[in-house]
Amino acid sequence: MQLLLLNQAFTFEKNEVEDKIHFALQDVVKKIYSDNGSTLPITNQIQKVSDNYYIVNVNDVFENNILEHYLKTEFNKVKLDLDFEYAIYDCGTDEMMYGNYISSSGEAEKKCEDCFTKNSDLIYYFAIRFPNLKQSYFSSLNQYWIYTFVLFLVLIIYVYSVFLLLKQKRYTELQNDFINNMTHEFKTPLSSILIASNFANSQKEIKENSKLSKYVQIIIEQSNKLNQHIEQILSLAKTDSHQIHLQKTEVDLHKNLELINENLKLKHNKNFSFTIDESTKITLQADEFHFYNLLYNLVDNAIKYGTEKPEISIKVISNTNKLTIQLNDNGNGIPEKDLPFIFDKFYRVSRKDTEEIEGFGIGLAYVKKICELHHWKIKIKNTTNGLQTDIEIPKK
Predict the structure, then answer these.
(1) Using the 8-state DSSP alphabet, how is residue 384 labeled?
(2) DSSP element (H, E) containing 294
(3) Which residue among 151, 197, 226, 366 is least crowded, i.e. fewest CB within 10 A of its CB?
(4) How many helices (H) and strands (E) does the chain have?
(5) Rounded to whole angstroms, how far apart are CA atoms 208 and 378?
(6) Are 126 and 86 in contact (CB under 8 A)?
């Protein structure tokens, strides 16, 4: 369509210029006849030999300087800003006598005296040539060329983007398949290890031997940790492949927070304070399983990356249109340069204690995804006392 429009614009511009040339030359002939006091013949006196070459049959006497003056005047009237050169037929020598080269820019151009040919059928005539006519067509369509270039550029970028998206989609599918297969293959032997370890731990011989009992306990603890990591990876893979279907029910926020507090006390050895405000005694429409995991991840991170004595508080702020679950801690916060990326998969903030703390950097990516599935918003920012996490839930 753009090429068709460009072609139509070129044709329109060409016809417009040709009409201007024709009318201007016609007025030149009229002025010559008016000066000579002759009657203008009805026959067509302007012949177009080629796109940039015209022959004008005056059929009456005229002078060189008068002709040049009339040509300049009439071309200015129709606003024809083009270079031109002309030649007049000389009856005495039977040759075309070169007139002059008139430049629109005032700069001298290369003359072409051999470009004018005589016509054996005419006596009083002159020929006029426009050497830069074709270039003027293209230059007058500058805006159309720009639009065409921009359109093709956008088209190329669009096609390239589609190929990239298809490629990325394929890689994502391969990644998800790999994660699902990997976690499945890990869980089978891990389940066997846990069953065998728990059975061994209940045996009399193991219980009576403190060293063996300690080793079996370590196996059980580390197997449970590994199982938790695998579950996290599976959950994230499911969210990416849109396999999660939320089952929303009435969820008691306060009870879930108390349960999280109890479970984290069993998990972490260091002392921490978890203050649950009375404003959390509300019910929400949410998927209870994923909502619990969401809050668990946030509080667990606050303890893991917090100070030696983490202090965490949670409350609910009610506004006109939304509820905000606000979680505050007394940690060191997150560097500003890392804040925009903390919800990216596998991204971990650079810390001195990163190597000591286990994890894959997928907890917050899972939290973000669950919030999006619930149509909630999550924001994390640094405060003077630590880190603040806000989960905004529309009341509607």
Answers:
(1) S
(2) helix 288-304
(3) 151
(4) 9, 12
(5) 51
(6) yes
Helix/strand/coil for 60: coil
Burial of 247 (0-12, 13-18, 19+ CB in 10 A): exposed
| Cα separations in angstroms, 14 against 4, 51, 86, 201, 291 | 15, 9, 21, 96, 70
Q: Which residue is associated with the tokens 């800003």?
A: 81
- The residues, any chain, with a CB within 8 Å of residue 309's CB and separated by 6 or more, are 270, 271, 272, 273
Helix (H) or strand (E) holding 327: strand 322-329
Contact (Cβ atoms closer than 8 angstroms) between residue 75 and residue 24: yes
Name the burial class of residue 118, with classes exposed (0-12), middle (13-18) and buried (19+) by CB atoms within 10 angstroms of its CB. middle
Q: Are residues 63 and 45 in contact, defined by beta-carbon separation less than 8 angstroms?
A: no
Q: What are phi and psi of 182, to 5 degrees?
A: -65, -50
Q: What is the pLDDT along the chain (396 residues), one digit of tens a residue?
A: 878 888 888 888 888 888 889 999 988 888 888 888 888 776 778 888 888 899 998 888 888 888 889 999 998 988 888 888 999 988 878 888 888 888 877 776 778 888 888 888 888 889 999 988 877 777 777 777 788 888 889 999 999 999 999 998 888 777 777 766 776 677 778 888 888 888 888 888 888 888 888 888 888 877 877 777 677 666 666 666 566 678 899 999 999 999 888 888 877 777 888 999 999 999 999 988 889 889 988 998 888 888 888 899 999 999 888 999 999 998 888 888 888 888 887 777 776 554 445 556 777 888 898 899 899 999 999 988 889 999 999 987
CA distance 14 to 205: 104
Q: Of 355, 271, 264, 276, give the one whose Cα is nearest residue 301.
A: 264
End-to-end CA distance of the chain: 47
Query: How far is it between the farthest Cα atoms of the chain?
Result: 138
Measured CA to CA, the distance from residue 63 to residue 348 in angstroms comes to 90
Rounded to whole angstroms, the Cα distance separating 60 from 37 reads: 11
Encoded amino acid at 74, one letter: E
